[in-house]
Amino acid sequence: MTLRFDVLATCGNARRGRLHTAHGSVETPAFMAVGTAATVKAMTMDAVRSTGTEIILGNTYHLMLRPSAERVAALGGLHKFCGWEGPILTDSGGFQVMSLANLREISEQGVTFRSHIDGTPHELSPERATEIQHLLDATITMAFDECPALPASFETLQNSMRLSMRWAERSRKAFIAREGYGQFGIAQGGTDPDLRLESARALRQIGFEGYAIGGLAVGEPQSEMFATLDVVAPALPEDRPRYLMGVGTPIDLIGAVARGIDMFDCVMPTRSGRTAQAFTSRGPVCLRNARHKDDPRPLDDECVCPALNGISRAYLHHLIRSKEILGAMLLTWHNLYFYQYLMRRLREAVAAGRFADEAALLHEGFARGDIPAL
Amino acid sequence: MTLRFDVLATCGNARRGRLHTAHGSVETPAFMAVGTAATVKAMTMDAVRSTGTEIILGNTYHLMLRPSAERVAALGGLHKFCGWEGPILTDSGGFQVMSLANLREISEQGVTFRSHIDGTPHELSPERATEIQHLLDATITMAFDECPALPASFETLQNSMRLSMRWAERSRKAFIAREGYGQFGIAQGGTDPDLRLESARALRQIGFEGYAIGGLAVGEPQSEMFATLDVVAPALPEDRPRYLMGVGTPIDLIGAVARGIDMFDCVMPTRSGRTAQAFTSRGPVCLRNARHKDDPRPLDDECVCPALNGISRAYLHHLIRSKEILGAMLLTWHNLYFYQYLMRRLREAVAAGRFADEAALLHEGFARGDIPAL
Question: From A14's CA, which of A81, A85, B62, B80 has a CA 20 to 30 Å away?
């Protein structure tokens, strides 16, 4: 294996680990900040680092269209291009082609689609998606997969999963191994246990440096997602990192760590930061609400984030109402810090063998709800 | 005088000074960053500080409408509200009421207008504008004035200037003096030398802690602005700071410092940062242009700003084309840094008695134009 992963401690099914890459190490369970178009929206890379983020995610779909993989390669790769020296994981483009592109056609070969920017035709296949990620110099490359929307019939899920497994094999063949770099396969199969187990077996047979669980958090209830994790996580190799794609809320993260997941990514902290929603130790708070207008108190008594030091709810409310860019900047920064703070607490709790207690404490905090209005 | 100002050195008519305020000192000539709605747009206050900015400007018009002066006062004043501990100068609202409000009526008493946000009626007068600035806890309060658009007839300019002088006297009476705080009068009179001298005399007779020159950079050629400065600057007290309002380009600043101006404010560096224009030692550069698409070079060889360390033109171009907030953040930061870098060079040159040489060197750089495309 060219991507070393150490499981340092376990507590129940929860794992405390460390991933060693060519671009530095990552403490797990880890939350990856989403940097869609070579930027974590509304943040400088220094600000991203200040949150404790160790690895960011780039989107193959967006980057292949603009500025293009070949251009990024000519400019020295994604790390240099965007000023992030740490590890970068890129998705394969599959999920976004399915959900974003309005004109697309899927075949055994791959997907053809039109750019949402200028309508130009493009193609993604296991080989091309892997090549693009190589051109971007992704630390972690994702296999190309199809991700069907839920709910879907058993037959749809089965066909789609088996196509994804054939694509996974082609992706693996196209991957150029390098020390400290790796490729993750993606388990599919919706919420069907048998399909998920078949998918996990297929991926193990191919062999990857890590294993992702895709096709969840696409509309199904949280309980179904957790039930699926209960089936699929134990079916993945114990000595390799497990990555739950596109998840989730703080409560999703706690529940998934409890089920043995090591890595996450989600637009939630960053997107919410641009829509006035803040994550706090007492659950989410919408700062657009008039109740904050005269409130001199900090957003969260427990918050020690570098973004909101000395900043009142009234000021955040003012920035949001005035549509000031700084509102998005500060809330995004805070939210990402909050997510990393949560991950730190979970990591420490696993290491200390008190994960269940910590999870209960966090849940209790979220359930309290926001402080009463003044 | 409750606002100490020391002229430390002169070189020709250019002055190197230091203004001592209740919120810290300001090295002059100084450029004040515009923080319209209690935020320097697209920048954190830490970033503003990192550029060497020592004083920022707040807009009475915007702040009185949202969040309102009374609310800011209840929240502890503007410094605490926005997290800027240094000096803050607030304008009087006059200029913006004239130029922004679509429904306004001017009388001897003051101006009535409707909010551009919700259409509610408001009033500004010398007394109310001064009270608002007191509520905001402005370090430097500006007298309330009328600022006519140029070109205008002599009679219009004369009537307007004399109204402004009567308003200046009422503003002064309404001002509550405190140690380390001050109020500046504003000379008006368009580009007419006699009116400007009459205005300067009227202000000296009232007596202020500083003197501003308003009603310039509103459409007249630069040569007329400079000619007006040649008349009005020497007519203002030598031992008090002189502030040229709303100016300007780097070349405007150099020419105005040469004519004895000590303080400036302008939206140019910040607004340009949101519209893809960067200021460099070789003049302005538009990063939206396709010529930068593949360009791995830094924006400016001479730039050592904290925003663009390691950042290529290609990346900036990509951010702008992708409409990413980070594009506005980085360019605004860079531009404000560039303005402060320029002011530092001018201050050092005055102190060293080589202002004309430095001005010539800067002009030469700007005239070179951008580096050739790759």
Answer: A85
